[in-house]
Every structure is written in structure tokens, then in C-alpha cells.
Q: What sequence folds into this?
């Protein structure tokens, strides 16, 4: 693997712990997306129960990009509960469960496993004392690598993760293409820059599908959600506005002499929001999975506030805190931890003064591994 790719994997992680600035305390938007995905997830689980004949004695579930905090066990607990109750309805003996929680090595797995007793207690309260057995294991590593033995998984879930790339497009790393003053795609992006990002996503997502097809049993299910866009235009405000505002905040620190200009010009986000139709095309081209359902999910501009309506300055603070919880490890690694507070203070001011708002768009897709 390229050295730069290894570096990206070491710093793409949400801010750990349970403090005021942690991802655990600032992931309401992600929680809202998980809640909106439940109907399609439930249908996928029910289809698994009804179409695979007799479920094995142990069902293997993988959550890829699990992060830490209250969202970590949300999907897997729903998957297990649905299987357990459906088996009872059908007069079958419920299976045991293996739950594999995957994220990059920098993830706060300590916090995840400290919450494990409460998770087990919750599952018994909801399903009865006889529920189980349920074994939970951490699988640190990139989901752009093989993680599990062949034909091991029965259900794969991933939420709010696959928009992160395995690396910054190599054309930017090799300085074949420049992105001066910006950190992602923007309305000033050249066609070559846009193509570089799109190509990197295509390589990463096709590899992800290939690896998961090897690890998933025939008839197994996979449900994915990721940030996306409804328009073929890759530089619309829908996918680029917040990145532009963050770049504007960094430009302000350059003008103050807190960041070197070349430092800003050498930073590019390993991120991409695909067009929903392009995502379908990649799945069809891979050919290992059939698409059972695809939905576009939309959250309002102020979704970081958990659905509450605030004035613009308060909304700006909440959006900036949410962004900081996600991006601080990457930004601090490149620019230095000492500029994080002035950076996000400036970002709050910029968002509060800007009148533009965008909806946050994700795509949810449910698939079956072909025989």
C-alpha cells in the first residue's frame, strides 16, 4: 500500500472519548440517518430470515465503520432483535450471533467496549433473559482490504462511512493537479480535478464490493448508507458548501499568518459524494449483488441540532461542533492541533454570516449476494 494511503488510514477517525467535543456527543445527524434507514434495514433482515431456509446456528453480522458512541450498536441491535423475534414467530430456535465491529485502528474501541455490558443488558431487557449467545469482536482495519474469511458473513451493514476514500486522489498527491486554496471539489474545480475524485471513488467502491462479495454467503444481505448527491453536478452546493466554508476559514488563518499558504494548498479531503445513479451503475457492473431497494434520504440544514430549530448563530455553533468531531483528527494531523480552536471559531462566524443553506443528502441501498 502507498505510504500516503497508510497515513490517511491513521487519521480518518472520529474524535474519541465522551467529552463535549467528542463524536459521541456530536453525532445527531448520523443518528437521524440511522433512524430513517430502519424500514429498509428491517425488510432486508426479514428477507434474510425467510429466504435462506434454516438460519445457521450462529449468524455473523458485520458493521463497517462502526465509530464509537451511542450510534455504534444501534443497527446491530436492531438486526439481532428482528432475527430473534422472527424466528420465534416461525417456531424456529433463534440463532446465536457473532457481531464484528470494524473501523480504522484509530477508532476509540476502548469506549465501544466499555459500553458493551450496557448493550448486553439492553438486549436481554428487550428480548428476554434467554436471548443469546452474542459474541462481539473488534476488527480494526480498512474496509478497502479483506477483513473476514470467505463466505463468513450473513449480514453486512455500513452507515456514514463509504464517502471516505482510501486515499486522496493520486493526481493531487503527485501534484499533477492543483487545488489552490481549496480542500475539496468546488465551483472553481477543473475537469481534471473532478475526474480524479470520481475515479478514486470508483476504484474504492468497486474494490469494496469485490471484497464484500467474497466475504458474504450467497443469499446474504448488505445495507449501506453514505453521503451522496441527487444531481449529476459534482460541484453543486449540495455536496460542496460546507467544504467551501471550511476552506474559507482556513484561508482566513493563512491571511493571519497562522497557517502557511503551501500548507493549505497541500491539504485535500479524502472524501467524495457520488451521484446516486453512478452508485447503482457500480453495483450493477460488479455483478455480485442484486439491488433490492434504494432510497434517497434527506436531512435539513440544521440536522446537527437534533431536529430543534435555533437562531443562525446557535445553528452555526452546532454545525461547526459536528464538523469538528468528525474532522479534527485529520485537520490536526496536517495543520497542527494548536490551530483547531481558532479555525472552528472562524468557521462558526462564517456559517453564522452566510445565508445559504443546503439539505444533507444520503443514499441507502439494500442488496442481496447472488448465488
A:
Amino acid at each position: 500500500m502507498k505510504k500516503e494511503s497508510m497515513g490517511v488510514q491513521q487519521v480518518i477517525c472520529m474524535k474519541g472519548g465522551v467529552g463535549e467535543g467528542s463524536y459521541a456527543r456530536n453525532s445527531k445527524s448520523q443518528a437521524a440517518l440511522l433512524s430513517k434507514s430502519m424500514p429498509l434495514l428491517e425488510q432486508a433482515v426479514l428477507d434474510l430470515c425467510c429466504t435462506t431456509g434454516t438460519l445457521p446456528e450462529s449468524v455473523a453480522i458485520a458493521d463497517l465503520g462502526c465509530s464509537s458512541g451511542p450510534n455504534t450498536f444501534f443497527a446491530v441491535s436492531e438486526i439481532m432483535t428482528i432475527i430473534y423475534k422472527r424466528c420465534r414467530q416461525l417456531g424456529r430456535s433463534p440463532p446465536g450471533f457473532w457481531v464484528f465491529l470494524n473501523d480504522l485502528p484509530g477508532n476509540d474501541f476502548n469506549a465501544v467496549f466499555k459500553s458493551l455490558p450496557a448493550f448486553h443488558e439492553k438486549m436481554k431487557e428487550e428480548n428476554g433473559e434467554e436471548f443469546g449467545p452474542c459474541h462481539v469482536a473488534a476488527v480494526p482495519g480498512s474496509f478497502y482490504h479483506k477483513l473476514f474469511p470467505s463466505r463468513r458473513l450473513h449480514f453486512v451493514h455500513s452507515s456514514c462511512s463509504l464517502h471516505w476514500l482510501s486515499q486522496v486522489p493520486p493526481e493531487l498527491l503527485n501534484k499533477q493537479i492543483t487545488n489552490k486554496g481549496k480542500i475539496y471539489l468546488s465551483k472553481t474545480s477543473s475537469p481534471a480535478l473532478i475526474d480524479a475524485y470520481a475515479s478514486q471513488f470508483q476504484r474504492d467502491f468497486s474494490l469494496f464490493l469485490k471484497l464484500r462479495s467474497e466475504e458474504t454467503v450467497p443469499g446474504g444481505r448488505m445495507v449501506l448508507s453514505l453521503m451522496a448527491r441527487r444531481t449529476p453536478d459534482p460541484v453543486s452546493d449540495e455536496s460542496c458548501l460546507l467544504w467551501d466554508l471550511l476552506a474559507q476559514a482556513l484561508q482566513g488563518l493563512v491571511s493571519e499568518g497562522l497557517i502557511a499558504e503551501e500548507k493549505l494548498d497541500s491539504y485535500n479531503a479524502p472524501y467524495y459524494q457520488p451521484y446516486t445513479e453512478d452508485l447503482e451503475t457500480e453495483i450493477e457492473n460488479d455483478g455480485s449483488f442484486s439491488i433490492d431497494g434504494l432510497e434517497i434520504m434527506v436531512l435539513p440544514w440544521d440536522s446537527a441540532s437534533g431536529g430543534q430549530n435555533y437562531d443562525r448563530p446557535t445553528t452555526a455553533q452546532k454545525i461547526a461542533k459536528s464538523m469538528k468531531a468528525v474532522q479534527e483528527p485529520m485537520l490536526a494531523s496536517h495543520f497542527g492541533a494548536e490551530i483547531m480552536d481558532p479555525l472552528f471559531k472562524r468557521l462558526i462566524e462564517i456559517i453564522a454570516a452566510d445565508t445559504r443553506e443546503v439539505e444533507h443528502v444520503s443514499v441507502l441501498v439494500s442488496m442481496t449476494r447472488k448465488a
